[in-house]
Amino acid sequence: MTSTSASVADASIASAAEDLILICCSDIAGQVRGKGFPASHLDQHRRFGVGWTPTNIMINCLGAIPATPFGPRGDLYLVPADSSEVVLDFADGTPVERWLVGDILNLDETPWDCCPRAFLQRALAELEAVAGLRLKASFEHEFHLAGAAHRSGDSYALSSMRSAAPFTRELIAALGVNGLEPETFLPEFGPRQYEITVRPVIGVEAADRAVKLREITRAVAERHGLVASFAPVVTRGIVGNGVHIHFSLEDLNGAPVTYDPAGPAGLSAQTAAFAAGILRHVRAVCALTAPSLLSYERLRPHAWSAYWGNLGQRDREALLRICPLPSAADIDPAPRFNLEFRAADATASPYLQLGMLVMAGLQGIKEALPAPALHDGDPEELSEDERRSLGIQDLPRSLEQALQALDEDDVAKAWLGPSLAAAYLMHKRGEIGMLQGLDADEVCRRYAEAY
After folding, report:
1. To the nearest whole percent, how much of the chain has pLDDT over 70?
2. DSSP structure class, residue 14
3. How far, rounded to the nearest angstrom, does the alpha carbon of residue 420 sit from its chain's CA centroid?
4. Which of 209, 306, 315, 419 is 20 to 30 A away from residue 247, measured at CA?
């Protein structure tokens, strides 16, 4: 080929190049998977999306399918959801990343029983129909930034912000242009550990934002030669990464109803019952909010995580924490008042995490459960009888214990439905089986790589 013909061919390829768009879902493993197509074909995929397979939901975080209830049978659609497209265009000649959150549908366009996003949508719809309430939520993420500079003693330090400034500046911009409304970014207690928060929103969009935040953070880190890992434990002996889920309740007119100055610790009757429902079913809930072997390495006593199922007011080791409010007389506390669920991490799908909290809370409202006892302090210092009288449960101490609690809680399994419950238990027990026999450092390495 002559140089002239080669340049013509190069020009033709360049002029024909276009972005790819992926339609993605956050699956049981909390992994974002999907299929792509040329951007010019987007309109053709608006209604029926891309083809999907039931067994895809059984791919675990290690990239394997130890077992599946679906086998090679069945067909589904992965269809763009009602959430804005993610676009990462750094205007520097690198490929533009474009993707859409998707819903998994049956061929008749009804939600698939095992779609995590559909589970959350169903939970939120039931909360509205039964209780006349909507959930407002935000996911507070911690992550480890491998490759970032570190010096001894730089927890919360300005030096940690300075060294990460090029990454931070681009991350905040990427979150902002994609509508995530970033609020805070800070160096955390652990070495090379950071925390990022975004503004709370109503309903399923809160979980959509969590999915987007994790992937955008990883993408921006990669551009800077860094690796962002949201794994609950990256290296043994250092502080783990949690996902603290903040939530509050509103009525159907958008009025906040979480706060009642006459209620216990400021909780309205509905919110108190909602919290009581979470605490009653917390052992089963943990199977979906803290769903990895390393989740229980993080949930240890005196580690500023959750270890007991209690409600606390100013206690960062309580499972449910009532968040502080300004005491200024000119500020209405109601719009700011929220609870924080602390036994969660990013090895889970945000849709399953939030869906379980909604279902458990709604169960408490249905049963009109009384306000849970407020306990600030270490429940370990109480006797077993004292903890029982206060309704304080111990959390599962391993993933297998959490799965067993879910399997034995018929009410919680009914929230998921028989298909999703069975698939979930099979999926997670397969993950445990694959990691059995590995030493702790290797387990940490595999989860850090996966998340």
Report:
1. 97
2. H
3. 18
4. 419
Last residue of a domain, one of 85, 112, 139: 112
In degrees, rounded to 5, the angle at the alpha carbon of residue 100 between the alpha carbons of residues 120 and 431 is 55
Phi/psi at 394 (nearest 5 deg)? -80, 145
Structure token pair of residue 234: 């990256």
CA distance 385 to 371: 19
Q: Position 294: which residue type?
A: L
Domain assignment of residue 4, yes or no: no
Number of structural domains found in the chain:
2
Calculated CA dihedral for residues 316, 317, 322, 326, nearest 10 degrees:
-20
Spatial separation of the C-alpha atoms in residues 151 and 276, rounded to whole Å: 43
The tokens describing 8, both together, are 């013509």
Residues 202 and 106 in one domain: no
Lowest model confidence (mean pLDDT) among 37-46, 72-81, 158-167, 436-445: 158-167
Do 138 and 98 share a structural domain?
Answer: no
Pair (151, 188) in one structural domain: yes
Of 112, 141, 161, the domain-final residue: 112
Q: Are residues 348 and 399 in the same domain?
A: yes
**Shared-domain flag, residues 268 and 165:** yes
Closest to 168 measured CA to CA, from 153, 191, 151, 187: 187
Amino acid at 263: G
Residue 251: predicted pLDDT: 98
348 φ, ψ to 5°? Answer: -110, 155
Q: Does any domain span residue 233?
A: yes
Segment 180-236, tens digit of pLDDT: 999 999 999 888 999 999 999 999 999 999 999 999 999 999 999 999 999 999 988
Whether 10 is covered by a domain: the verdict is no
CA gap 331, 267 in Å, rounded: 18
What's the pLDDT score for residue 9?
56
pTM: 0.94
Q: Residue 78 — φ and ψ, nearest 5°? A: -110, 105
Q: Are 237 and 316 members of one domain?
A: yes
CA–CA distance, 123 with 126 (Å, rounded to integer): 5
CB 364 within 8 A of CB 357: no
142 CB contacts (<8 Å, ≥6 apart)?
188, 193, 194, 195, 230, 240, 241, 242, 243
CA dist 82 and 172 (Å) reads: 23
Q: Is residue 353 part of a domain?
A: yes
Q: Provide the 8-state DSSP code for 29.
A: T
Does residue 124 share a domain with residue 99? no
Arithmetic mean of pLDDT over the chain: 94
